[in-house]
Design a protein that fits this description.
This protein is α+β, with helices and mostly antiparallel strands. It has one domain. 21% of the residues lie in helices and 39% in strands. Strands 6-5-4-3-2-1-11-10-9-8-7 form an eleven-stranded antiparallel beta sheet.
Length: 267
């Protein structure tokens, strides 16, 4: 499954296998550089897992590759006590160049917004790997950026557990986003963050090409330390509108937005 770097807290644990302990240096309160290091390691894991999954059937690979086209977008909300205010992460495909997607990634907080334009491989053997990045200024101009800048952006959305103690169970659930249900597998883990014992739940779907559907980490007394929610997905003709405007033609009508998701995390 394609798993772009969205939840370093989740993928960094799952990548080493369920039930295996994983020690990391990035958690709430630690320097941003440490979190960025975890994000960079997770990005490499994404590429490695894409390589490991390259032997899947060509029909499945073609279905996944064809699923994302210019105008497709997805939005996630990150909240919980790991940060003061929620974050909204939006990814929008603006172009497809063979097996490479050009994706605008925007991270919005309560006081600032930052945007990167990334080139992302969609080839079966490298799906989800970030190939390059550029900052997008307010006027739409691009300026060079490093992959470290992308890792630092993603690190802001992450809370990494210190240890994954055991798998508690899995179950099939449906998550409604924009009026359409996504069939997911919800897996629960017992984890530790510092000295705090918590439960981590992940929502994954092989049919969702953007990656993980969501996840959360809660303490034993019910406090939400971290929550990642898929809040919107769909397609807009925004890239086509820009092309039409440049050519002096009338752009297509603005699409109606999808409804906000109602995620299923509770046992």
């Amino acid at each position: 499954m394609n798993r772009p770097l969205l939840f370093a807290a989740l993928t960094s644990i799952l990548a080493v296998g369920c039930g295996a302990g994983l020690e990391t240096n990035a958690r709430a309160g630690h320097p941003r550089g440490a979190a960025a290091k975890v994000a960079a390691e997770t990005r490499r894991e994404v590429a490695q897992h894409a390589q490991d999954g390259a032997d899947k059937s060509s029909r499945s690979a073609e279905k996944t590759a064809a699923a994302r086209q210019p105008g497709d977008y997805v939005a996630y909300r990150f909240s919980g006590s790991f940060r003061k205010a929620p974050l909204l992460l939006t990814q929008r495909v603006i172009a497809r160049e063979g097996d490479v997607l050009v994706v605008d990634v925007t991270l919005e907080g309560d006081k600032e917004t930052e945007a990167l334009r990334v080139r992302m491989s969609d080839a079966p053997s490298r799906r989800g790997e970030i190939l390059g990045a550029a900052w997008i200024d307010a006027d739409g101009a691009e300026r060079p950026a490093t992959l470290a800048a992308y890792d630092a952006m993603m690190a802001k959305t992450a809370l990494a557990a210190d240890e994954n103690e055991e798998v508690l169970g899995t179950e099939a659930v449906n998550v409604d986003v924009g009026g359409a249900a996504i069939a997911c597998q919800k897996t629960s883990f017992r984890v530790r963050i510092g000295k705090t014992k918590a439960t981590m739940r992940t929502l994954q779907s092989d049919d969702f090409v953007w990656g993980d559907v969501g996840g959360e980490i809660t303490t034993e007394d019910g406090r939400v330390l971290y929550r990642a929610e898929l809040v919107d997905r769909g397609h807009t003709d925004a890239p086509l509108r820009a092309t039409a405007a440049a050519a002096g033609a009338a752009p297509p009508p603005e699409p109606r937005p999808a409804t906000v998701a109602q995620s299923d995390y509770e046992d």
